[in-house]
Design a protein that fits this description.
alpha/beta, Rossmann fold, 2 domains, 7-stranded parallel sheet, 5-stranded parallel sheet, 12 strands
């Protein structure tokens, strides 16, 4: 290693050529690194590049005595102890802007699949049955979509929903610019009102102490019996046991989940009826993954050029 080179440890599987780090960086690619190995080698690196697999907690940060930057390719930072990083003087960045289109399309896909009972129709047809009469669906046009959290992804979901002829209601903890509301032809309502009025409710908030189990038994009880809930943000936002009970009792028509409290999921939620589940693939498109790594590479270079 040449003197002065920044040492970068890539802890998860990414396309290194998209990272595009120059010769001022030495990159070690260890996508299967274990926690024990990470703890043993952490002290030697200036940068960690991660996705969702690797957890950068206080123990890792305390070992990483040379660390200056944690770069998370993708959206969400729940696998990074951001507060402890701040106390250690370590900057944390991610690339949520790169996944907007992929996650927004996936949220709409889950709504459509639930509305038309797509997975049931697919399975029964492949099994040799022709159950047309029993597969009556619903249209999304003229229905109300409640959006909880109007960041980049929430806004894009709203745009796609409007193109489908839906009306849009929004709840967010921050003030939404009037021009955004005008573009979406949307109205701001209270959090409980999103659940009470929505034919569909979609979640786009980070997982924090305040948002954990934001969707609990009480909020689910506010929803229409014909309502659908979709979550492509973080699994802990929904109390899965409460959701399973609501689905099994018929208090809620259906749920589409791409994220779970534990991954892979377990428990009662797996036997709940009228569900479409996917294995955290909202951002899993070729375009989004390539762009996420490209953006992270740009942010790493910019960080050290400013330092």
């Amino acid at each position: 290693m040449s003197e002065g080179k920044k040492r970068v440890l890539v802890c998860d599987s990414i396309e290194l050529e998209k990272l595009a780090l120059t010769n001022e960086f030495q990159v070690d690619f260890r996508p299967a690194i274990t926690r024990e190995e990470l703890l043993e080698t952490a002290a030697g690196y200036d940068v960690f590049v991660i996705r969702s697999r690797t957890r950068i907690d206080a123990a890792v940060l305390d070992r990483a005595t040379s660390l200056k930057l944690v770069a998370r390719s993708g959206t969400g930072l729940d696998n990074v102890d951001v507060e402890h990083a701040r106390l250690r003087g370590v900057t944390v960045v991610n690339s949520p802007e790169s996944l907007v289109e992929a996650v927004a399309e996936h949220a709409i896909l889950l709504m459509l699949a639930l509305s038309r009972r797509l997975t049931v129709a697919d399975a029964s047809t492949k099994a040799g049955r022709w159950e047309k009469a029993g597969l009556m669906g619903t249209e999304m046009k003229d229905k109300t979509l409640g959006i909880v959290g109007l960041g980049r992804i929430g806004q894009r979901v709203g745009e796609l929903a409007r193109a489908l002829g839906m009306s849009v209601s929004i709840y967010d903890v921050v003030r939404i610019p009037p021009e955004v509301l005008a573009r979406l032809d949307a109205k701001v309502v209270g959090l409980d009102d999103v659940f009470a009025a929505g034919d569909y409710v979609t979640l786009h908030v980070p997982l924090t102490q305040e948002t954990r189990h934001l969707v609990d038994a009480r909020r689910l009880s506010l929803m229409k019996r014909s309502g659908f809930i979709v979550n492509t943000s973080r699994g802990g936002i929904i109390d899965e046991d409460a959701l399973a009970r609501a689905l099994k009792s018929g208090a809620l028509r259906g749920a589409g989940l791409d994220v779970f409290e534990s991954e892979p999921p377990s428990g009662e939620i797996l036997s709940a009826p009228n569900t479409v589940f996917t294995p955290h693939i909202g951002g899993q498109t070729l375009e989004a993954q390539e762009n996420a790594v490209t953006v992270i590479g740009e942010k790493i270079r910019a960080f050290f050029h400013k330092s």
